[in-house]
């Protein structure tokens, strides 16, 4: 069943279109940066972007920083919201279930498929970011790459930090996916599930900035989203990254548990 | 018709002794489904025997689809029991369903894929082993291609090529749905409105296909609101009305003689006078209806009274009449 | 859709529900229980706790700091991050090898500003502007830096200021960030102080203050600073050495900010006493601090042009300048911290007076300064 879901994912034009659009934005940004040479003012614009001019090897991180606030969560929420509700809407859910495919198995396969999509999306953005950065913004031959703390990064350092960042952002997105996947088992409308997932994110983003919500702040799903920036400090503070992984894991476990509890005995009337 | 990979006819009849229901493929006892305060299906006792062509009749909204979904484990009953192929559903659904082919409320397919790609995905999604120990290959990858081709041929979709399902007509999609149901050579076919969107010729083709499968031993549970379809195809009929089973009998019994006799005479008014009401009544098209008056005595009386008897025959109900009688 | 209430479904939901309940209980109740559970009571007197805290400057540690202030100050040109530092949350990372060898990073999602303290200089690195600035020497007056708000630094500064008229009380021992601490409360004896009380929690094992909380007269907590994830270890030498990024802009200066420059450049000889408070401080002639105990006011002469700009900025955010005999006063305040910008009508004298004191005291000091303007230092 997992293989079937992966084949569905990869054989679907929409998968590639959405990933292509995700990769397009950082490339457009890189082109503008390269043509105009105007970096965003410090403290403004997407994180790390001011540092990438003439420092193309840092662009994969900046590229992910560009798509992280909006496009990546939207793409992942749509994909995860689609998972069960999409089958319900196209009328294929009932045929899968009477084939028969066990409901838990179907859910696991859907989860793996969403995981694969997320990883594919994050990796594609990082890879296009790297290519665009190297070709448009020049590689780090003359200018060495530095951390936010001002220390110098060797290419090996940069590689493992970027790798951990890709995994961290990927896992943050799995948190988003689990919200949308749970909602996807509640409703037969993929759109409602995706929008519901995004609504949770927007609420969380609003609450994170609100001092009055300080009591719950550290447990909000988007609280540690930007902690990947910590990977580009020296020494790396692992506290927020670890906390972010734990918070996301909490959401993933609870929401997938709820999705399973709901879907296992849900009446399929689509 | 080509020979199928796993001809259901070669299967021995079930030998497991399940009491009186030993040869039944579908049995429900007190099956009830409530949505909140609405009772969709109420205390249903169905029995479909192996080899039956069972027509499950009822108007729209009578609970047919809910019942079908319960039989397939899609919807969970509020109370009551379901046995399909001798095993409890939904508890043993995963053992039973591989041997059941189903078409529920229209076909479902991924619109961007071709018919073959859809069937390949669907088949790969199911268990590799069927529930039937005598045919362990029913879901295997090795036989997938040939099974898909056979199913497409059965429903007349061999030459659709690589067109995506998006471009199919309603009838073609319906055929694809049937092909999906036939993919694993099921012992039981559960079909909900299978002729939706088909033209008369298509309907006849599908009916022939189902008759052929049934001759080879596949039981067919056909849920429909079309009386004519059921009347033409089924051997046994269950009638559902507002969630309750109001009749379950052989088709012939439901269409059987009413015990009354219809008599055509030249002068109806004279005839009623001769026989005297209420012993004799008339139908709209001018026939006398004899309830408990013996036919020889009545005709003799009419002739004596100077009324000419043109025709006398036992009254037979149409299925429509009996269903309407049951559901009004 | 609907879900059927079968025993299996109930079991599944019960499992998920129990998991969530357990998680919430542990997350919500855990820290609270840990903070007070089984903390052995202290034997130290408040005075001993204060003494140990004051002697803790050499304790090496690595930690994460968080300070939160709600002092709403207007954003004034030349005063850098002051408003953000005292009016918001600042997250820091600390590597403390000793008072002459430390590093404090103020981090935010977009970058960081790192301060390296060395024996004779302080180096700052700003990741946004990619500037590396070295300040040689220690200016007599300067604006607060992120490291000033670290719990140990703020606590030692506060406790060092405590005078005989101020009262010390013992607080119940409790845990801060998992470590057993002794608490001491400072209650100012002078009613002119805007501080209602200040609580300091000091690590029992090392004497390092881990938590400071200042409550203003309004009863509101105005400043909280805590250390988290404290590890008592000597930081790696490479970490507390300023970086040398190849593409950074560099600067070397003796005065890091407007206040320090004004203090160095002041031409006036400040009086020995104002409104009954006597002057003290490293640079008593140019930028003295008046008062004792917790009532202390920094009086800093400003160049009149700078004072004009600051008053302009302050009035643009709604703070009006008020005429007083001999000059004008602009009051900027937030309950706990009050400041007065004083401009003499002669167009030459201007001052800023800042302290955790009542605005009326600042007015009295302003009146003294305007009534008897300080003479130029050359006349001494």
From TrEMBL, chain A:
TM region positions: 16-38, 58-78, 114-138, 158-183, 195-216, 236-261
Record's keyword terms, sorted: Membrane, Transmembrane, Transmembrane helix
Record's keyword annotation contains Zinc: no
UniProt entry tagged with the keyword Membrane: yes
Pfam families according to UniProt: ABC2_membrane_4
Highest taxon above the source species: Bacteria
Full protein name: ABC transporter permease
Organism: Phycicoccus avicenniae
UniProtKB/TrEMBL annotation, chain B:
Residues of the ABC transporter domain: 26-267
InterPro entries: AAA+_ATPase, ABC_transporter-like_ATP-bd, ABC_transporter-like_CS, P-loop_NTPase
Region (Disordered): 1-22
GO terms of molecular function: ATP binding; ATP hydrolysis activity
SUPFAM superfamilies (alphabetical): P-loop containing nucleoside triphosphate hydrolases
Keywords noted in UniProt: ATP-binding, Nucleotide-binding, Transport
Residue stretches of biased makeup (Basic and acidic residues): 1-10
Domain of life: Bacteria
A UniProt-annotated Pfam family: ABC_tran
Record-linked PROSITE patterns: ABC_TRANSPORTER_1, ABC_TRANSPORTER_2
Annotated family: Belongs to the ABC transporter superfamily.
PANTHER family associated with the record: ABC TRANSPORTER, ATP-BINDING PROTEIN
Protein name: ABC transporter ATP-binding protein
Organism encoding this protein: Phycicoccus avicenniae
Phylogenetic classification of the source organism: Bacteria, Bacillati, Actinomycetota, Actinomycetes, Micrococcales
UniProtKB/TrEMBL annotation, chain C:
Organism: Phycicoccus avicenniae
Protein name: Uncharacterized protein
InterPro entries named in the record: TAT_signal
